[in-house]
Amino acid sequence: MPSLFSEKISLNLPDGDITYFPNFLSGEEANTYFEVLRKTVPWQQDTIKVFGKVHPQPRLTALYASNSKPYSYSNITMVPHAFSEAVLQLKERTEAFSEIQFTTCLLNLYRDGKDSNGWHADNEKELGINPSIASVSLGQERVFHLKHRTKGLKHKLVLEHGSLLLMQGATQHHWLHQIPKTSKKIQPRINLTFRVIH
Fold this sequence. Notes:
Number of strands: 16
Strand order of the largest sheet: 1-2-14-11-16-9-5-8
Order of helices and strands: EEHEEEEEEHEEEEEEHEE
Helix content: 10-25%
Shape: globular
Distance between the termini: 26 Å
């Protein structure tokens, strides 16, 4: 259950509803979940097509869900696994914070600084209008970039080990986000993004 003393940071960005909880999990809990997920998740590397050329996706992924509905993005269609015990625990913890019942979790494993996620919005039709996305970060902290689609606004946030980022309302309509590459020698990061697929 969420702690009454959990720090809550509202980003207060125009056309967005984004809240950050840096100490969503304790350090010990975050360490344990990171090791369990790294070893037990059936990670896969799909290919993506960019400007007509096919490339390996620059991260590993896995999809879990409480139903059998596939999830499609960037011309990739993923079929979900049934929730594992660890992912289900994090799902229930996230639901207690957000008061949202999530159906699906897309996990990303960024193995090093070369792994990344380009500019995008989580606005696929399966997610419906004004989707809520809850993102749990484990392992190496990475810089999360945001940019407004039309107003030229930008924002950066360091996503810490054991943190939760909650994006709601019209955020996905007005803001793009990314995890850029870095030339720094860094450790792996696991990111769980909980969502509702209709």
